[in-house]
Amino acid sequence: MTAQPKKRSVLESGDGGLGLGLAAFIANGEDLGPIIRHAFESSKPEALMQNLRSIVKKKEVEIEELCRLHYEDFILAVDELRGVLVDADELKSMLTGENIHLQEVSTALLLKLDELFELYSVKKNIGEAITTLKICVKVTSLFMACNGYIAEAKFHPALKTLDLIEKGYLQNIPLKLLKKMVQKHIPLLKMHIEKKVCSEFNDWLVHIRKMAKQIGQVSIGQASLARQKDEEMRSRQKEAGASARPDEHMYTLEVENTDEESVLDFDLTPVYRAHHIHIRLGIGDKFRDYYYKNRLMQLNLDMQISTSQPFLESHQPLLAQVAGFFIVEQRVLRTANGLLSEGQVEATWETALAKITSILEDQFSRMSTASHLLLVKDYVTLLGTTVNKYGYQITQLIRVIEKSKDKYHQLLLAECRKQIDDILANDSYEQMIIRKEYEYNMNVTAFHFEPDDVVPDFPYMAPFSSSVPDVCRIVRSFIEDSVSYLSYGDNMNFYDVVRGYLDRLLIEVLNDNLLNMIYARSLAMSQMMQLAGNISILEQACDMYLLLCAQLCGIPKRIAQRSHSGLTARAVLKASQNAAYNALINLANFKIDEFMVLLDNVDWIVEEAPDNPNDYMNEVLIYLETLVSTAQEILPPEALYKVVSGAMSHISDSIMTTLLNDGVKRFTANAVEGIDIDLKLLEAFAEEKFHSTGLSNLGKETTFSDCLVEIRQLVNLLLSSQPENFMNPVIRMRNYGSLDYKKVAIVCDKYKDFADGLFGSLSNRNTKQNARKKSMDVLKRRLKDFS
After folding, report:
1. For the residues of 270-285, what is the DSSP string, one character each?
2. How many other CB atoms are found less than 10 A from the CB of residue 511?
C-alpha cells in the first residue's frame, strides 16, 4: 500500500528517475506491470525500452564480472558434471539389463497373480453367497420361531421376533422375492396375534362377568364379618365399662391378625397380555377404548333389574355384581399400567352410583315392610363399606339411606302399632303370675322392673299384666331396629334421632292405644286399675329405654344419665296415667252412684232417731273395702290416694246433692242423726284405711276423712244447739269453713227439728229443742237476708 505513491513519484520525475525506479523494482523483485502500463499510458515506451536495455547491459557486465571471478569453479563444476553423466550412463545400462531380467522373471508370476485375482473373485462371490444364505436362513428361522411362539400363544416373544426381523434383517435381505414375502407376512402375523389376544380377552370378559358376583359376595361377606367383630368389640367394651367402678380405668389391647384382607382370587393375565401386545403393535389407544366400552356395556347389563323375581330376592346378587365389577376395575387401574385412568373409573362409578340410587329410591318407595327395607339397607351399607375400602365415594348411597329413614320408621311404627293393638286388646288386665325363674328373668329382670340381685319366691305375682313385658319387648325391638337402620357409614352421632323416633313410638302408638283403652269404657274396675298400674310401670320404663338407646348408640351410661334431655313421652304417659286415674275415679263414682240411689229409700221424716246406719252406707262400705284392697295391690300409693279420695269426695257430694235436690222436700233432725251415724262409720273407715295403707307416711295435707268435711260440717251445723253461730265469721271459719251460704240456706229451709206426727208438737218438744229451733229460725232469717 505504501509503495504505490512512491512509484508515482519516480515515474513523474523524468527519464533519469524512471531508470532508477525501474532498477529498484527489479532489484526488489517487484511487479513491473504498473511501470510498464504507466509508460504506455504516458506515451513514453521508448524511454522505458532504453532504460531496460541499460539495465540489461549493466546486468551483463555484472555477470561477466561474476564469471571472471568464478571461472575456475565453473570449470571444476563442469568436469564433475561430466563425470556424473558417465556414471549415469553406466547406471542406465545396468538398470536396462535388470529390467529385462525382471520382465523375464515376472511374466510367470503375473500369470499366477491373474489366477490369484480370479480365485479372490470367486472367494468374494462365495462369501457374498454365504452371507446372503445366512441372512435368509436367519430370517427363515426367525419366522419359524415366530410361528412356534404364536402356536404356543407366546405372543410377546413372537412380536419381539417380528420386530427383530423388521428392524434388523428386512432391509438387509438380498433376495427381493424373500424380502417381498417377508414384508407381506409381517403385518399378517401381527394381525393374527391381535386377533388371538382379543379372543383371549373376550373370553376373559365373559369369565370375569361370571366371577364378579362371587368376588362381590366374598368381599361383602368379609365386610359383614368385620362389622360383626366391631360390634362384638364394642359390646365387650360396653360390658367392661358397665362393670367398672367410676374411678377404675380399664385398658384392653386387641391383638388381631393384620394380614391384608384377601378377596376371591381372579386372573388378569389376559388383560395384561392384551394390553401389552396392543402397545407393542402401536395400537394401545384402540385397545384401551375397546376395554372401556365393553366393560361399560357389561356394567349396564349387570344393572338391569330382574322382572322375574322380587327386588328383595334380587338385590343381593345385583349389588354383589356391582361390587365385584368395581373391585376388578380398581385392580386393573392399579396394575394394568395405564389401561384405565382414574377419571374413567370415577366416571363409571358415578354412572353406576346414579343408577343404583335411582333403583333404591324407586324400590324403597314401593316397600311396605320395615324388615324388608332394613334388609336391603344393611346390604347397601355393606356394599358402601366394601367399595369405599377401594377408594370409591359413597356419599350418594348414604344420602339415599338418609332420605329413606322416615319411610322406614313409618313402616316400623305401623307394624308396632298393629302389634301393640293386638297385645292390649288381648290382655286380660290381671296381675301376671310367674311360676318359674326363667319366666321371671324374661319378664321382670330383663327390663329392670326389680333389682337384678333379687329373686322372689315362686309363684310370684307381678304388679303388671302380661301386656307390659310384651310391649317392652316391642319397644326394645323398635330401638334395636332403629339403631340398626341409622348406623351406617361413619354416622355414629344418631342418639338424638333414635330418641326422637322412640318418642314417636311411645306417644303416637303406645300412648294413643292406651288412651283408646281408657276411653273405650270396656274395662271393669279391676282391669282399669291394672291398666293404670301398667301405665305407671311403662312410664318408669322410659329411663330403661333411654339407657338402651345410649348403649346401642355407643354413648357411655354415665353420660346418658347426666343428660338433661329425656323423653317427652314420659310426661305424656304421666298425663295418660292421670287420665286412667280419672277414669278409675269415674268408674268408682259410677259404682258408688248405684249404691247412693238407696238414699231415695231413706225416711227423711222419721219420728225416732235410728240406731244403725242406713242400708246404702253398708253397701258403700263393702264396695270401698273391695276397692281399697284391690287398688292397694295394683296401684302405686299416689294413685290409691287419688282414687279413694275421689270416692270419698263423691260420697260427700252425693249426700249433699240428695239434700239439695227437690226429691227431698224436708227432713228432720232424726234423719240427720241417721246421716251422722253413716258419716261416723264412713269416717272411721277412712281413717283406718288412710293409716293401714301407709298413705299417712306420704305427708298428705288432706286425709280421706277430710274429703267428707263438707257433709260433716253440714251435719254438725244441723245438729248444733246454736245453728245461728254459722253467721259468726270466726265460728264459721273455724267450724263451717267448707259450707256455702246458698247450699246451707236451701238445706236449712228443708230442715224440721221433729216430725209432724200425731200430738207430736206437744209430746216431743222440750226446752232444748225449742232453743235449737229458735236458733235455726234465726239462721234461716239471716240467710234469707244475706241472700
Report:
1. HHHHHHHHHHHTT-HH
2. 20
Residue 767 has a pLDDT of 62
Cα separation, 387 vs 222, in Å, equals 12
Cα dihedral 137/143/144/148 (nearest 10): 160
Residue 253's pLDDT is what?
35
Length of the chain: 787
Cell numbers 338433661: residue: 564
DSSP 708-775: GHHHHHHHHHHH-S-GGGGGSHHHHHHH-TT--HHHHHHHHHHEESS---TTHHHHS--HHHHHHHHH
Q: Give the Cβ contact number of residue 346 at 10 Å.
A: 14
The per-residue pLDDT for 260 is: 39
Provide the residue type at 15 as one letter. D
C-alpha cell at 690: 288412710
**Separation between Cα atoms, residue 506 and residue 162, nearest integer Å:** 81
314-317 long-range Cβ contacts below 8 angstroms, 24+ apart: 315/363, 315/376, 315/379, 316/217, 316/379, 317/213
Count of helix runs (H) and strand runs (E) in the chain: 30, 4
Contacts of 252 (CB under 8 A, 6+ apart): 236, 237, 240
Q: Which three cell numbers stand for residue 126?
A: 462365495
Specify the residue for cell string 360390658. 239
Calpha distance 546→561 (Å, rounded): 9
DSSP 565: -
- Region of 566 on the Ramachandran plot (φ > 0 left; ψ -120 to 50 alpha; else beta): beta
Residue 13, pLDDT above cutoff 50: no
The span from the CA of 386 to the CA of 378, in Å, is: 12
Calculate the average pLDDT of the chain: 81
Report the alpha-carbon distance of residue 349 to residue 388 in Å, rounded: 11
- pLDDT surpassing 50 at residue 247: no
Most confidently modeled range among 157-166, 256-265, 767-776? 157-166
CB atoms within 10 A of CB 74: 11
Cell of 456: 322372689
Give yes or no for a contact between 672 and 718, defined as CB atoms under 8 angstroms apart: yes
| Beta strands 460-461; 751-752: pairing state | unpaired
Please give the Cα distance from 365 to 415 (Å, whole number): 17
Assigned C-alpha cell, 435: 311360676
Q: Which residues contact 390 (CB under 8 A, 6 or more apart)?
A: 326, 327, 330
* pLDDT band for position 18 (cuts 50, 70, 90): low
Which pTM value belongs to this model?
Answer: 0.68
Q: What DSSP string describes 689-702?
A: HHHHTTGGGGT-SS
Neighbour count for residue 256 (Cβ, 10 Å): 7
d(CA 433, CA 436): 10
Confidence of residue 769 (pLDDT cuts 50, 70, 90): low
Distance CA 299, CA 379 (A): 19
Of 23, 13, 90, 1, whose CA–CA distance to 44 is shortest?
13
CB contact at 8 A, 327 and 215: yes
Nearest 5°: the CA angle 498, 502, 504 is: 120
**8 A C-beta contact, residue 290 and residue 245:** no
In this structure, what C-alpha cell is assigned to residue 263? 378377596
Interatomic CA distance for residues 744 and 759, integer angstroms: 30
The sign one gets for the Cα dihedral 320, 321, 326, 329 is: positive
Any idea of the CA torsion for 13, 15, 20, 24, to the nearest 10 degrees?
A: 90
Give how far Cα 534 sits from Cα of 327, 447, 470, 527, 541, Å: 55, 14, 12, 10, 10
Torsion over CA: 14, 17, 19, 23 (sign): negative
Identify residue 633 by its one-letter amino acid code.
Answer: E
